[in-house]
Each structure stands twice: as C-alpha cells, then as structure tokens.
Amino acid sequence: MQGTFRFSFGPWNIHEGADPFGPEVRKTIEFNTKLAAYKKLGFDGIQLHDDDAVPGMDNMTPAEIIKAATELKKVLDDHGLTPEFVAPRMWFAPQTIDGGYTNNCPKCREYALERTKRTIDIAKALGTKNIVLWLAREGTYIREAKDPVVATERIGEALQMMLDYDKDIRVMIESKPNEPMDHTYIPTIGHAIAMGLMTSDPSRVGCLIETAHALLANLSPSDEMGFAMAHKKLWSVHLNDQNGLKFDQDLTFGAVDPRRALNQVRVLDQHGFGNNGEWVGLDVKVMRTQKEGVDMRHLDVSRKVFLRLLEISRSLDDAKIAEMVGTRDYEELNYYILDSMLK
Hints:
Blueprint: E1 7-9, H1 31-40, E2 45-49, H2 50-53, H3 62-79, E3 82-87, H4 106-126, E4 130-134, E5 139-140, H5 148-165, E6 170-174, E7 183-184, H6 189-195, E8 205-210, H7 211-216, H8 221-230, E9 234-239, H9 258-270, E10 279-282, H10 297-315, H11 318-326, H12 330-342
Parallel strand pairs: 1-2, 1-10, 2-3, 4-6, 6-8, 8-9, 9-10
Antiparallel strand pairs: 5-7
Helix pairs in contact: 3-4, 4-5, 8-9, 9-10
C-alpha cells in the first residue's frame, strides 16, 4: 500500500540566521511574504505556533484571539494553504522558565493551561483539529528539582484538560530527549504513546516524530516511525537530518545520511502514510551562511530529496528483496540497496 504525500513547514523554517553564538545575518521576511512562498516551493500545508497565528496573544482577550485567528483563516484560504496543526509556544514566556505543565509554581502551571486553551481556540478558528505538544521545558537541569512521578502526572492532567476542553481535537506529542533542558520528560515516542493511557480517551493522543529528535536519543528514525505506525499513532513527521548526538541541527533532509533518509521514506510509503490525511513536515533550518534571496533553498531541496528517494524506493524489486531476505543473504541485500542509490 503506497502512501500519499503532501508537504508542510512552519514559518520558523525561514529565519534571520541568529544562533546562540551570533546575531541575525539576514533581514526579516514578512509573514505574508512567507505565506506566498509556500505554493511556489510545492508546499500545501502550514504549521503554526499559537503566536505565529496570533502575535501578542498574551495581551489579548480570548474573544480577540479568536477574532484574529478567524481573520488569518481567510488569509490562508486566499493563499490556498491548509493549516496542519497549531502548537502552544510554551518556552518563550517568563512564566515557563521552569516549564509549563510541570512548573513548580502553581500560578505558572495555571498560565500554561490557560495558554493551551487559547491554542485550541486558535486551532478551531483555523479549521484544524491537530494540536502539537513539543514539551520543550518540561524537564530539569538537575534531577532533584522535580519529582518525576508528579511531573508525569501533571503532563497527563494537562492532556486530559485539552481533551475535555474540545471534544474534536487530537494531540500529537513531539518527543525529544534533551535541549533546551538537560533532561526532558517524555523523551521518546514510546513515552509519548504511553501518555495517552493516562487520559480517558487514548484514541485522541498520538505523536509526531522528528528525525533529529530520534537521533538525539540514539534511535533509528525509521524504526521509531514503524513503532508508532504499528500502534496507529504516527499522525505527522518532521523530516530533517543530523550530524550525530549534537544540538538539534535540523539539516536538509538526507544531507548527512541519504540511506537513513531512504529508510524513513520507505517505511512511510510502504505502510500508507498520508492516506488518512497525514502531512510530511520538513522541519529544516536555513544555513546561517545563506544569503538573502536563496534562504528558502533548504525547503525546496528537502522536498526534492524526499521525492527522489521515493522514486528509488519504489524502483526496488520487492520480489528480489524477499528472496534475499528469505535466504538471509543480507550482504547481497546491502549491496543491492547501495547500488540502487548510487546509480
């Protein structure tokens, strides 16, 4: 069963080039200019943080937030863009220095829950049921700072609150083992899937797998995707690449390890990813060295690499592979894959 592939990315994937060691090197591109670039690059979906959709939302009433999101929906429609998901940006606010849902301060936890409700309001106004949770600061720098039982329970309570607040939404947990925290709770997709069991409706809690996040946990991205698909929980992906166990690099998809990228494309395609409306998100960062005018090339290249690897995967002789697997001739299978990629 072949997959059906359509592509999305977030406005943060086009940026000014600042990093922890240096300032911006390119001028800011206006949000509406970014929107106009999507279709030209072959993308149909847009990913949004809540404050991408409604800037300054912390200083607005719930009604004002919904009104602003409704106006954005019209703009997205004019551009022919479908909102894939909305995610609460829970790592910029001063209230979330020590996390949101797991914060040791009750008022800060209350802020996190209220902010999440507003995120759901925005998603509903935009016409998407998907809420992504990247639990960025839900962790510790030192283990004694938080009780892991209590912290896990608080995340479960937040999930339950979300499901109760809107009966139509579904939550996709985007797990990551570290960064910005030294250690984060819910570090892998197995943890993410298990969190659904702490709610009254596990069918509405799934996951989003990012290539780099799996690699940071020293795991195989394609195996992680397969694990989630076996549980019917892979509802989105963020494809990129990574040079080892470093910071989250978000390199162009396939830039480091094309074979690893092939395996991701292949598992998605062979198991019908996208046939139920799932999107392929390309969460890739523009290189700091890129000049203005060519600072969207990484998105174009990542999409082209995915499609080229899809061609290669679909050109492989499944009967020949089955024969080699059946005789356990894995060295020949290894060469067959390499040879197919090097042609």
